[in-house]
Fold each of these.
Amino acid sequence: MKNQKVAWIFNRIADYLEMDGIDFRTKAYRNAAHTIETLSLDIEDVRSEGRLQELPGIGSKIAQKIEEIIDTGSLEYYENLKKETPVDFEALLAVEGLGPKTIKLLYKELGVKNLDDLERETKRHHIRRLRGMGDKTEKKILENLEFARKNTGRRLLGYVLPQSREIQEEINKLDIVERVEIAGSIRRRKETVGDIDILVITQNPDEVTDFFTSMKFTEEVIAKGSSKSTVRLKNGLDADLRVFPEDEFGSAFVYFTGSKEMNIELRKIAIKKGLKLNEYGVLRDDEQLAGKTEEDVFNILGLSYIEPELRENRGEVDAAALGKLPDLVGYHDLKGDLQMHTKWSDGSSTIKIMAESAKNLGYQYLAITDHTGTLRIAGGMGDEQIKMQMKEIDQVNQELEDITILKGLEVNIDSDGLLDIKNELLADMDVVLASIHSGFRQDREKMTDRIISAMENENVDIIAHPTGRKIQERRAYDLDFNRIYEAAQETNTILEVNAHPNRLDLSDINIRRALEAGCKLVINTDAHKREELSFAELGIATSRRGWAEKKDIINTLPLKKLLKNFNLN
Ligand code: DGT
Ligand code: CA
Ligand code: CA
Ligand code: ZN
């Protein structure tokens, strides 16, 4: 029951040890935390069977600590470390550029314990007085602070979505449950999620609530009432459960899907019409005019149905009033995937396995796009390997039916905008993606020039993960998007929506701007193993949040049309 808590404590201990530079013990605690985080069993069960030390990375000392946490709910060793250096690690570590050692220095010298302290000391220019720091460090900290504030406590959609579906399924198994839906930011497919909002229709709220507060995912009950309960899940997130009768479910679903900002717009429209809108329905005086379905609620307000991914108060309400909502790309519209990696570079599946998996997803084609030359950490391929790989692709294409493997590469754009594979070889490929993997912090002009010069190479078809951001990890490069979008059109280069859970790059907002500027997009998973081909859903969701239609996405095209689009064959 306490897996998440134990792992969390061990990770914090590792942070404290890292502050003091004790590397081997840091590693031991991180390993133990990882083991417990990914354990499919309840750590308490493992303990009561006396099998803790059978787990990888858990020796007698760490096992003792696990027992102490299970028995007492805390760990004296950790409490002492905390007293010594009482800082909000999770928040401070989220500031790019701050590691445990710097955090210790900031605490010892300036008493910085949290993000507010950090901001204050930075603005007073106290940081630059410290050893190894300067006005540049202060500037960087201020830039990264806001990013850290926005991110603490939120989780990636890609990880929460499967978990929320699992919970939904469990609740749905109850006979007394007529309907269960996930609402909130998860339903809107926002890239990060604060908590899980669950709505249920049932005649028997108490029984559903009892189940919810004691199910296997629940670690701790925060509030328990008959129409609303909140629990802390073992994965560390909170989940809210709300129970509604059938004839109010539509209005509750609209309300709790949000966004809050869109709800406020809807309420204004209701008021103008002399109506009242809340989670219980659309009311005139006390009479409920609508509330059973979402469609009813939108329609009575004079709006067409708004897809959840659009509900961010970014113009969708006006568009719905005018009947001008986009016809969004669908979750089953992709015909192929044009970025993935195999054992030839840093992937872990073979070409054949990737192709078979793509076929199982119903695709007509896939492109194998392993890393090239200069990207050593990713096992980049040289000319000879590329030629050998092309032969293997020919061979697998002969073996498999109803799926076409395209020969592709993900080449690197160097700090001068040059590619690491020569043009005559690139000309032999079906699909060439170019992307930046180094030198992220050049100035805006230079970064933009690099990408544009890659676009100007006639062999380059796609710019992969165009902004380089990693959600909660790394900010986007500084780019002049107007120039990028213009060059993409002039050079007929496609911009990628990378569907990897921590990339989603382009982001929803950038997708919308790119489309308004007239660019074409491709949704790719960047899969490094076959299971990751399922990330496509996240790329589609993000594209929908960016108002993308089927016609905007080139890999909704059947193979022949796609090839024509690339001027191939
Ligand atoms: P999150 O959890 O931070 O990722 O984002 P949401 O959108 O899921 O927000 P949450 O969980 O606080 O609330 C779920 C929905 O309930 C939200 O999208 C809209 C609705 N809601 C919550 N509080 C308010 C409020 O004060 N006013 C209005 N109009 N709606 C609210
Ligand atoms: Ca939420
Ligand atoms: Ca909530
Ligand atoms: Zn890779």
Amino acid sequence: MSTSEKPRNFIEQIIDKDLAEGRVTTVCTRFPPEPNGFLHLGHATSICLNFGLARAYQGRCHLRFDDTNPEKEEQVYVDAIKEDVSWLGFQWEGDVRYASDYFDTFYEWALHLIKAGKAYVDHQDAQAMAKGRGDFNTPGVNSPYRDRPVAYHLAEFEKMRAGEYDEGSCSLRAKIDMQSPNMNLRDPIMYRIRKQAHHQTGDKWCIYPSYDFAHGQEDAIEGITHSICTLEFQDHRPLYEWYLNNLPVPHQPRQYEFARTNVNYTVTSKRKLKRLVDEGVVASWDDPRMPTVSGLRRRGYTPASIRRFAEMVGVSRSDGMADIAMLEHAIRDDLNNNAARAMAVLNPLKLVVTNLPENEVRTMTAPAHPQKPELGERELPFTRELYIDRGDFTEDTTLSRKKFKRLVIGDYVRLRGTYVIKAEQVVKDDQGNITQVHASYVPGTVGENPPEGIRPRGVIHWVSATCGKQATLRMYDRLFHHETPGKGVDDFIAHVNPDSFAVKQAWVEPSLARAAPEASFQFEREGYFVADRRDHSPEQPVFNLTIGLKDTWANRGK
Ligand code: ATP
Ligand code: MG
């Protein structure tokens, strides 16, 4: 039994009943991606559902590649999918499985149906076949090949397998009902000819089973109890069951459908994501703007935040639209609790601490996280030359303390983790731009209140100009500026946000150069950043903006 006290979703209710009635003893689910692209947020919710159910009910979940279509499938996708599932925190039962592991069995079962007079080789071309199927208003008509003798179809199928026919010239069809109101039952295709090498089986086969002829049988072979798929397969369920009822399968799985996860401001379709990659709109499948699992990972999303999002989306029987703000909330919450704090100055203004000698380095220590001493401390070198953010200084002495809690000429501010300072003087270039602020520190104010009469306006961040490091910050924003990319235009690419990516140079505290790839930080007052998984190094630090501190999106343009 699941341990949580939450209201049960409809699939959990079904499982509870199956267990109570003894129909099922051990829950077995599967996640069955086709290796024709990288996994996206929608898949992530399906992964969390299937693996999550197995975990909650102490059952099993298989990872099975639905690799029945060699044209679009590739090993790189197989590898990426395995990595993504593990990274999300799930472990499949036993080895990775492949539909192609069962091709011999499927072939035997095709023969079984032919021998039973329930399958036939159709030599009609695609056009004739489509015409013969009819449509929602027109019943189909039987193929002229349908009622030929079993021996003929066995021989023809053997020729198909042996490569004697060209692609598209014939196919194996199930003999069900050309008049069925359910189009899926109008003699669906079981096998088609594809003279293409397969990433798992090489050149062994030139005929490949259709999704429908494969999926239920894969579930049956593996002992899947609850085969959960998305709603568009609801109309396929009678066919799924027809095959199981007409084949000598070792087990009867059941199919259940739930609504696919759609998310606003993004796309969850491998076909569309592939276009973004192929057309160079993004740099790669794992570009940090992509809603792929690997893109989210590179952006700094954590597995926990994605699992939390899946939980928030829930499991529904009818289509809806999830708000991307839920995912952003989940990651902000996670990083607020767990990311180490650090300082980075994005718009540097030099600050000279005039009462500190030139070569002196005073090493301050600051907690990595204000509420989490277990995350340790970091060293902050305090030197004569520092950088502060331009936006944190003004010469305007009329601004009230409430309005401007930063550094004002002639006034005090605390530098995070070190002294209170007083701004005394500015240096300007010929155009009148401020190039330096000269200040003095107030002795005895590290971790201590300043003496009577000195009231710092606030706390600002800073980096040592001599010990700090330069880093590249990759500033990302949403990839689409439209809530429903593609709506009302010919092509969803028209809704790509042209400002979704910018590069900035910043000064960062020296400890950040040693950050491990994929380590996340809150750059104080700037946002959450992650050390890029692929490009960050101590020599050339690279950080990706995961998400801002506050949700500014909702207020944009207002
Ligand atoms: P796409 O439309 O992006 O190509 P797909 O359904 O063709 O997706 P598969 O690799 O066949 O991709 O999907 C693997 C599993 O993930 C299936 O069980 C499918 O139902 C599920 N899945 C795919 N997209 C979503 C989604 N948006 N929400 C929930 N589950 C999904
Ligand atoms: Mg699919």
